[in-house]
Amino acid sequence: MRPVKVPEPQERPPMTRATDQPAPERPTADLGPTVADLFPDVTSDAARRLIISAVASFAERGYHATTTRHISEGAGLSSAAMYVHFPTKEQVLFEAGKVGHEGVLAAIREAVAEHTDPRDRMRELVRAFTLWHARHHTMCRVAQYELAALSPEHHAIIAEIRRQTEHFVREEIRRGVDSGAFVVPDVTTAALAVLSMGIDVARWYLPGRSVDAEQLADRYAELAASMLRTRPRS
Amino acid sequence: MRPVKVPEPQERPPMTRATDQPAPERPTADLGPTVADLFPDVTSDAARRLIISAVASFAERGYHATTTRHISEGAGLSSAAMYVHFPTKEQVLFEAGKVGHEGVLAAIREAVAEHTDPRDRMRELVRAFTLWHARHHTMCRVAQYELAALSPEHHAIIAEIRRQTEHFVREEIRRGVDSGAFVVPDVTTAALAVLSMGIDVARWYLPGRSVDAEQLADRYAELAASMLRTRPRS
């Protein structure tokens, strides 16, 4: 658009590069204790390590400031090794986001499966949803906050998984309302609030900061039950 | 660390630059209708426009991929104009984050000021908190998600404002519990849940997507009242 290319001013003098300094509040590279369990379908150990390295770097530096070398070397591989397994950095972000979004949907489906009463199903749903976001908080932050960096095709795939998760929570609440177990002003808004409680855990959760993940999950299940004005069983 | 500098592989071919493509789900550059009201203390119109331009670019491209030229030209100024008003890009992020975090604290303090009953105060608090995050959703996303890019000194200032906000919400709930207005399993966890409901609005809110901001604020106030098991007035 501009006919003359003005040299880009130096933005970050070497001594004050903000991203070289540790984040004061949380160790962003902490992927949680169970991250390896997230990739049952990624059979190559190198590919798994590359995704884990990428997520740590995206969380620490941001997606755009992460280079393919960061990803490769963070996985203990040579600087261009990422290209052996993934065509682009965006593909790694997509794989990580897909695993994260599919994982939480599978977790809540599994959590409710053994129960029929809406009260029990919602308790287990909120517990599983909260636990997921606490345990995989770094992965979840990347999956949530770097969505805009995905290609439209990949974004559409992730958005569809998210819609399924939102739909699942909404339908659980709706069935509870229909059966008289819950009383809410509006099913859609109640579902948004339940989802937000859990998703936002990934933003603030730090292992050891306040409550542990299991305790948090129990308390959130209790708070959600109150929020949905859960009626006693008849 | 490495003795030989390997050329950085091309990461984003020109035709597939993800950030040049519109985000499928939301117009990230939308700063909300009242963004100009956020800067009563920034007396220079150019400085205000620079902050607004920076927030739009941070939301669209991410902090690290935003250049000082993006910021200056987005404000309708020449490419190096940012430096007339701000020493660094990080300073603009800090000013935006400070305005955002101070603004929401001021908003909830003002909202409760005219009320004494904990039920009324909490309703107005949740209303104001929800409205803030809906109206200023782009600013809030930047303020929340780009915190790690701040210098330690600036991060500490923002973290202190956040602590005051969290403390304020927690103490409102505690007073309500002490007076018998609310019944919660744990004040700290209940405060986290109330804060998360509101903060996460900035992540998903899109004007015109589902409910309008006022309606959402009313429903969230009602849901929070249920969550805190608000007792009838004696």
UniProtKB/TrEMBL annotation, chains A, B:
<dbReference type="Pfam" id="PF17932">
    <property type="entry name" value="TetR_C_24"/>
</dbReference>
<dbReference type="InterPro" id="IPR050109">
    <property type="entry name" value="HTH-type_TetR-like_transc_reg"/>
</dbReference>
<feature type="DNA-binding region" description="H-T-H motif">
    <location>
        <begin position="67"/>
        <end position="86"/>
    </location>
</feature>
<dbReference type="InterPro" id="IPR001647">
    <property type="entry name" value="HTH_TetR"/>
</dbReference>
<protein>
    <submittedName>
        <fullName>TetR/AcrR family transcriptional regulator</fullName>
    </submittedName>
</protein>
<feature type="domain" description="HTH tetR-type">
    <location>
        <begin position="44"/>
        <end position="104"/>
    </location>
</feature>
<dbReference type="GO" id="GO:0000976">
    <property type="term" value="F:transcription cis-regulatory region binding"/>
</dbReference>
<feature type="region of interest" description="Disordered">
    <location>
        <begin position="1"/>
        <end position="35"/>
    </location>
</feature>
<dbReference type="GO" id="GO:0003700">
    <property type="term" value="F:DNA-binding transcription factor activity"/>
</dbReference>
<dbReference type="InterPro" id="IPR009057">
    <property type="entry name" value="Homeodomain-like_sf"/>
</dbReference>
<dbReference type="InterPro" id="IPR036271">
    <property type="entry name" value="Tet_transcr_reg_TetR-rel_C_sf"/>
</dbReference>
<keyword id="KW-0238">DNA-binding</keyword>
<dbReference type="InterPro" id="IPR041490">
    <property type="entry name" value="KstR2_TetR_C"/>
</dbReference>
<dbReference type="Pfam" id="PF00440">
    <property type="entry name" value="TetR_N"/>
</dbReference>
<dbReference type="InterPro" id="IPR023772">
    <property type="entry name" value="DNA-bd_HTH_TetR-type_CS"/>
</dbReference>
